Each structure stands twice: as C-alpha cells, then as structure tokens.
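Hey all, quick one. A colleague (J.T.) asked me to put the GLP job into the tracker so the inputs and the structure tokens live in one place instead of scattered across chat threads. No bug as far as I know, just bookkeeping. Sequence used:
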Amino acid sequence: MKIVIVPDAEAVGRYAAERIAATIRSAAGRPAPSAVSGASGASTADRSAASGGREATGAVLGVATGSSPLGTYAELARRVRAGEIDTAGVSAFALDEYLGLDPTHPESYHSVIRRSVTEPLGLDPRRVHVPDGAAADIRAACLDYERRIREAGGIDLQLLGIGANGHIGFNEPTSSFASRTRLKTLAPRTRIDNARFFGSLDEVPLHCVTQGLGTILEARQLLLVAHGEAKADAVARMVEGPLAAVCPASALQLHPDATVVIDRAASSLLRLTDYYEHVQRNLPEHAGTGAAP
Ligand SMILES: N[C@@H]1[C@@H](O)[C@H](O)[C@@H](COP(=O)(O)O)O[C@@H]1O
C-alpha cells in the first residue's frame, strides 16, 4: 500500500485528480472490452447496453459519494473545462445506493453522482451506473450490477472515501472480504454521520445496496482519499491495524495497487509517518512520475 501524506484537503484533491486524469489518458481509445476479452458470454446487445448503447473505449472509473472526494471531482471538472482531459468514452460505476429512495430524491446516490460527477465531468449519463436501490428484486439488481461491471471490462481505478467506522462503500464492520454487491443494514454511526444530508436522522434509510469488498478488490487500482482529524483513527486502523473485517478498509492491504492519499490531520495517528515520507521523497525512478504531492 502506498501512503501519500499531503499538507491539506486541497492537495489531496489535486493528487487524486492527477491519478485519475492519468488513468483516463492511458485508457483513451483502447479496444472495447468485448473485442479484447469476449469472455463474459454476454450477447452483443447486453454488452452494448452495458456500455451505454456504444462500445466502451475509455477508462472505467469507480466513483464514491460523501464529502471526501468532492475536492477531487472539483479539480477534475476544472481540468475538463480547461480542455486538459477528454472524458468522452469514460464510464463510471458508483459504489452504493440507499435502499428504497427514489432515484430522483435529492440525496439518492443517483442524484448525488449526477450532481458531483456526471454533470461537472461531462460524462455521458448512459455510461454512468449506480446500483438500483429501488428495484422490486434487489438480489437480481445486485447480480445485474456485477454483470455490468464485468461487461464494461472491469474497473480501472476505484476512488474511495472511508467512513469513521472504517467502512468503504457501505461495507460496514464485519463485512466479508469476499462479499459482492448486496443488500446491507447501515450502522447506526453511519446513519448519524449521513443525517447531515437529510432533514433528520429518521429520514436516513436503514438499508443500502453496496458493491462488496470482493467486488472493490477486483478494481485494477484503488485510490482512497481522506482528510481531517475525524478520519485519523479509521485511517490508522486501515493502514497499520490488522487485516480484520471489523475494519473493512483494511481490505486495501490485500490489493497490489492501492494508494491512500491523506492530509496531515488524517495522518495524525499513524506510527510510521517518517517512513511514508521517506518513501515519497525517494521514489525509485522506474516507479513512474505519478503526481507530486
Ligand atoms: N457510502 C459513503 C462512503 O462511500 C463514503 O466514503 C463515506 C465517508 O463519507 P465522507 O467522505 O462524507 O466522510 O460514507 C458514505 O456513507
């Protein structure tokens, strides 16, 4: 796991945006997944639907909700406006959705992703996918979501935030590291934390649909962003604690290409800060340029 400590939340956003921009650039114009893999056994019509009616040729991004990635999205949007990034052909898959909220509800993740990702980044809405929390058959909808990710060729880069209780997506403590997209019950702490987006705690749904930890771990790159002291404990447990389902984010320790980008406040409970900074100052040349913190 690569730990990058930067001065503040703005620098977290700049670093993450640079990584995502690099992913978008390197995927641009590559062959559609159906042409290169053909392994899903899906019909051409299915594949076409999964890629929004056209063959997918751009990066497949995993996108997160919450406050943490907002700076990243704002920086990406600035670069799109400046013509530095071309998002044509880019697809996106959200991590999670509340159960039972109409997609048009302003706090449904369908709405949040549209406001914070699809519109500002100029993505084709047909290429942006959010789990269906309003489906009559949730189990079938979860299986369908997994199928859509597979048929898009898998996720190139999954952006993540972290909950104060160590959740990623809505994988609450004790979620299986092998879990797939499924229905979950939100932890009381998560509902309290997210009540700020609703009129009252009672309005926060009790349940959700979330990509599983097993699903998330299949993304080619994981990039977790966090800032502020309130995240320091969760960050320390994720990075330096034992691999344990009680801290779902510790699953990042299993991933071969996971980067954690945090500000000083979120790093305040880490024990090996000197080492992480030493590594950042002495990156081997062949590791590529990446983004300067
Ligand atoms: N489901 C989302 C997560 O994907 C997010 O990472 C987390 C942290 O949110 P925030 O960034 O607002 O602290 O909680 C939410 O409930």
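Adding what we noticed when we looked at it: DSSP finds ten helices and ten strands in the chain. Residues 9-27 form the longest helix (19 residues).
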